[in-house]
Design a protein that fits this description.
The complex is a heterodimer of chains A (about 120) and B (about 110).
Chain A: E1 3-7, E2 10-12, E3 18-25, E4 33-39, E5 45-51, E6 59-60, E7 68-73, E8 78-83, E9 92-99, E10 107-108, E11 112-116
Parallel strand pairs in A: 2-11
Antiparallel strand pairs in A: 1-3, 3-8, 4-5, 4-9, 5-6, 7-8, 9-10, 9-11
Chain B: E1 4-7, E2 10-12, E3 19-25, E4 33-38, E5 45-49, E6 53-54, E7 62-67, E8 70-75, E9 84-90, E10 97-98, E11 102-105
Parallel strand pairs in B: 2-11
Antiparallel strand pairs in B: 1-3, 3-8, 4-5, 4-9, 5-6, 7-8, 9-10, 9-11
Classes of the chains: A mainly beta (about 120), B mainly beta (about 110).
Chain lengths: ~120, ~110
């Protein structure tokens, strides 16, 4: 069965960096676009970034552009999110999610909490 | 960017009642609209894609309709397990955006 497992969350000071990972299994990872979506405490869902199967056309939300970098390793079935210059407003649960042309976000991970605080 | 506006923000209904949530896009998104259900402390779950297609395993009491800018999620007979927050989402282009959510209570 499809499984997405995020890791790497934690407490970090403003201005510091953190790297999130998402381990995928149960499907052919190299053929799907993958996304990061976040949710601040008590708030709604916010799309963060997407990387297509071939890593060619990558897009970011304006709120993270220039600070976050999404990447993938198809040989290891792993999605990553490098987060630099973190701000308190980046505090959220970060989910990785699978995407297909027809069905957006058909599978989600359980999420990993990132807290940016001094 | 395309803005997604849901209404109402919250609602309370009785078991067995019909519930309708609306979502309006700020631009034409054709049929590129999905609905998600999120229960407290859990990841979102896909319910509807392409505006009206039911995701595998989702009960048939859930249905979606609409095209262009106006969309609807309907729960034909509300059940206790449907208590959750519901989000609409467009996958028409980037950046992708979500509605602000509708909290459904019994």
């Amino acid at each position: 069965q499809v499984q997405l497992v995020e890791s790497g969350g934690g407490v970090v000071q403003p201005g510091r960096s953190l790297r999130l990972s998402c381990a995928a299994s149960g499907f052919t990872f190299s053929t799907y676009a993958m996304h990061w979506v976040r949710q601040a405490p008590g708030k709604g869902l916010e799309w963060v970034a997407v990387i297509p199967y071939d890593s060619i056309h990558i897009y970011y939300a304006d709120s993270v552009k220039g600070r976050f970098t999404i990447s993938r390793d198809n040989s290891k079935n792993t999605l990553s999110l490098q987060m630099n210059s973190l701000r308190p407003e980046d505090t959220a649960v970060y989910y990785c999610a699978r995407d297909s042309a027809l069905i957006p976000f058909d599978y989600w991970g359980q999420g990993t909490l990132v807290t940016v605080s001094a | 960017d395309i803005q997604m506006t849901q209404s109402p923000s919250s609602l309370s209904a009785s078991v067995g009642e019909r519930v309708t949530i609306t979502c309006r896009a700020s631009q034409d998104i054709r049929h590129y609209l999905a609905w998600f259900q999120q229960k407290p402390g859990k990841a979102p779950r896909s319910l509807i894609y392409a505006a009206s297609s039911l995701q595998s395993g989702v009960p048939s009491r859930f249905s979606g309709s609409g095209y262009g800018t106006d969309f609807t999620l309907t729960i034909s007979s509300l059940q206790p397990e449907d208590v959750a927050t519901y989000y609409c989402h467009h996958n028409s282009r980037y950046p992708r955006t979500f509605g602000q959510g509708t909290k459904v209570e019994i």
